[in-house]
Every structure is written in structure tokens, then in C-alpha cells.
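[job 4471] stage=fold_predict status=RUNNING
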Amino acid sequence: ISDMIESDPDFRVIGTAKNGFEAVEMVRDLQPDVVTLDVEMPGMGGLETLRQILRTHPVPVLMVSNQTEAGAGVTISALESGAVDFVHKPAGIFAVEHVRDELLNKLKAAAKVRVPRYSEAAASHKAEKPARALSMPAKGKMSTLPSNTFEHLFAIGTSTGGPKALQTVLTALPEDFAHPILIVQHMPPKFTRSLARRLDDLCKIRVIEAEDGQVIEGGVAYLAPGGYHMEAVFQEPRTYRISLNQNTPRNGHRPSVDVLFESVSRLPYLRLHYILMTGMGSDGARAMLAAKKKGAASTIAEAEETCVVFGMPKAAIALGGVDYVLPLGKIAEKMIALAN
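[job 4471] inference complete, writing C-alpha cells
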């Protein structure tokens, strides 16, 4: 990791820590601009180390995760707790160069982020929610509506900072929100599955990782699986389905927000809404503009003040494809108002 970082003249590694306890002390003493933090460490694990760092010396932290279910679960918790983003360890020698480029790009974005101090009160508030959600059987959530009864469909695209942003928006939707939500979050396989499970535990609506051929139902949020483009397709008589494919990445991403938005804009009979939230790059911006020109019911971009990285929303605003620019805490409220 140190060699990868120092291959870029914009960075200098000022310290390496053997474990979490040492990391907390070194961050306090050396005051770095950005930290890479392993998810799995001896002694104090990556998640607790992250929280300690954010309590004592808030600084942008990029998690380094194994490509495993366990690693994915801890990484999702780390993003909830305040980590800016993550990279996964290379699976072999031939993957090192790809990881190097991703690491450096994400470090450059992370170094510009203002990180709030970790809040014990917020953490305890978060901790209460999954306990209540987990005690409720899945069938206790509002049963979904047949695909031909909803009138609105919402499509959301996000990247860096997205897991926390999605949690803010989706947990604010009521149990009787009767319209489907299709989501692209730039993430690799396993991580999207863990994210969907975590969001489903916390939300009143159902949140699932999408499957190919699945009928789209009201009151369900569908998260595109890592490594697959997700499209919405129409079938007579008035049925909407999920279609997954592994076509060439768009804008460097698979899943791509542009691919999702373009497919949604082809759906008949529905009032269509497009939302772009925090993330690097411009994925989704061009397709949002095209959808607006085609007569989208609404287009929404997250405001700069709440974005972890003001990239994707900024690109959409610059193109003129946005109806509403809203802080993160107001997006669910707007979705409810539009659906009503």
C-alpha cells in the first residue's frame, strides 16, 4: 500500500502502523491529511480503530477490505460510521495495477473531504434501529404491490459516500411508500449484497439486491448487484422487470447509472423520477439530461453542502438536467411529495 501511494508525487507516506492502537496514536501525533485503514487487524479491529480516530482526530479514512462476505459486512459498517470510501485488496499480482489507480483516485477525493467528529449519540441511535428491524420478521413489512398498480418509479444513482446517503434517504421513507426504487451504487460484488441486507434491516420498505428477470413491485428498493448493469424493461400486459447484463462498463463502471437511467426513460405509463447523489465523476449526468428533455416527472441532485464528493450531481447541474437541488435530508421528503 505504501509503495502504491508513494508512486504518486502528490502523496507522501508519513507513517505506517502495525495495529489499531498504534494507528490511533500515530494519527493523533502526525496529523495526516488522509488515512488508509485495514478492515482486519490484530488487537483492535478496523471498525473500532476508525471510530477511535474519528473521535480523537477526525480525518478522511479510506478502508482497505478483503473481497469476502465478512470483509464486505464490516466495510459497510465502516462507511456508516464515517469512512469516506474503500478499496478492496488485489486478488492477485495482476490486479495490483488496477487497485493502485483506484486507490490513488479515491485518496485524492478523500483528502478533500471535511470529516465530522464521530458522534457516540448518533452511533447509539443507529444501533437501536437494526435491533428493532431485525426483531420484525420479513413478512411483517408491508406486502409489495403488483407491478401494474404503482404510478411512479424512482431511479437513484450514487457512488462515493453513497451507502450512508442511501441510508439517510431510504430510512426516511414510510412503510406505505407504494412505488419502486431502482438504485445503482458503484460497488463490487459481495459489497452490494451486504449493503442491501443492511439497508433492509434499517428501512421500513423492503431493500433487496436485484435478480435477473425479477418483476418490479411497488414498495421495494432494488439495488444493482456489483459487476452487473441493471436495466428496467417493459412487458405486456403492463409488467416491469429487472434485466441484468455484463456488457462493457460505461463511464468506467458496471453497474452504470447512465445504463439504468436510459432504460428507465424507455418505460411507458409511469411518472419517472431520477436522483443523483454524492459520487466522483459524471456517471448518470448525461442520461438525466436526456430524461429531462424526454419529459421526466422530476430530476433531483444532491446539494454540494451534504455531498461527500460533489461530482455526479455537479455534472448533472452543469448540464442543465436538474429540476431540484436538495440537501440529503430533504430528498426523501421530496420523493414522498412527488409520489402524492
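[job 4471] summary: Residues 121-139 have pLDDT under 50 and may be disordered.
[job 4471] exit 0
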